[in-house]
Amino acid sequence: MFRVIKSVPRCLFGKGSFNELSGILENNRTSSNSHIVFLVDDFFKNKPLEKRIPLKGADYIIWINVDDEPKTKVVDSIRDQIKDSGKGMVSAVIGIGGGSVLDYAKAVSVMLTNEGSSSLYQGLNLAKNQGVYHIGIPTLSGTGAEVSMTAVLTGPVKKLGIKGEFTPFDLIVLDPELISEAPKNQRFYTGMDAYIHNVESMDGMNRNSISDSYATQSQTLCREVFLNDIISREEADEKLMVASYFGGLSIGHSEVGVCHALSYGLSYVLGLHHGIANCIAFNQLEEIYGKAVNEFHFMVEKHKIDIPTQISKRLTPEQFDKMAVTALGLEHMWRHAFGPEWPEHVNKERIIEWYKRM
Ligand SMILES: [Fe+2]
């Protein structure tokens, strides 16, 4: 299967690169009747980073709460808030935060120029119009959201991304200083998203020399970050940022697999964040991903991280069913993992069995 991959065309990388943002944005300040909207994780409210955001004129910040995974109804309400602000044309949307905020920024950019609810655009290449210029600035690393063609959203009937050539950021700013204060568990869960991307990318029918090359290098970096005691935290942050970037590029050229399909079901029904949901699922997938799961267990122990277990004990049969239906619907992931005959390997019963181990 051949497909065209659109990647992020511009990347600014390096410690302190966030300080360049003000100068970069001057190119977008071409009209007195336009302004820039910053979507920022509300974790940074009243923190030093807030004061470093280069607001000018009618620019403003919309604080984003990421207690829940990104939702289509929230995208719609942010879009309406911006359109109803009376501040004129939006010349740029800047997302500053983890994967959820970056997904919101990508989705809002597209929805500012496409009519109706964002739930209408959950799928591949459904948006008709180019979005507003948008920049992604991650403050957590691992999801690859900074480089992906998808803004993952939970809608009224499904968890599925707005995916297409208008979704990727026009520019990303990768400043390792911005991830230096991430809480330990969150850093690990999100970092493992990159690790799992690489494992899944290299274990399926869509793998190819490009995806393998990115995944191999990203995996080397993940191991240096989570298994090497010698490197400094500063060096580790820089490597983790690149691991996330390359891991995202790898799945862009390949696909995710069993863990992500199961993880989507967990997030859709239980509202779990992507990183921790992946860790809960991957923790039980030794039969599929073998040694990689053993290595994951080793990293969990080394960093003294809590991976929730026995969550299935609290679930109703209806919840199991809904999770399994959500997971089973992600055909492209199963096809990648097991090939065209994937229905011979996976059915609702097997998926529920996996969930019962979690
Ligand atoms: Fe992921």
Describe this structure in words.
This protein is α/β, with parallel strands linked by helices and 358 residues long. It has two domains: 11-179, Rossmann fold (3-Layer(aba) Sandwich); 184-357, Dehydroquinate synthase-like, alpha domain (Up-down Bundle), CATH 1.20.1090. The chain has 13 helices and nine strands. The protein has helices at residues 21-25, 48-52, 72-83, 99-111, 184-201, 209-227, 233-253, 258-270, 274-282, 286-302, 317-328, 331-338, 348-357; strands at residues 11-13, 34-41, 60-64, 89-97, 123-124, 134-138, 150-151, 162-163, 171-174. It has a six-stranded parallel sheet, covered by helices on one side. Helix 3 (72-83) crosses helix 4 (99-111) and helix 5 (184-201) runs antiparallel to helix 10 (286-302). The chain is globular and about 60 Å long.
Give the helix/strand layout:
Elements: E1 11-13, H1 21-25, E2 34-41, H2 48-52, E3 60-64, H3 72-83, E4 89-97, H4 99-111, E5 123-124, E6 134-138, E7 150-151, E8 162-163, E9 171-174, H5 184-201, H6 209-227, H7 233-253, H8 258-270, H9 274-282, H10 286-302, H11 317-328, H12 331-338, H13 348-357
Parallel strand pairs: 1-9, 2-3, 2-4, 4-6, 5-8, 6-9
Antiparallel strand pairs: 7-8
Helix pairs in contact: 3-4, 5-6, 5-7, 5-9, 5-10, 6-7, 8-9, 8-11, 11-13
Bound molecules: fe (ii) ion (FE2).
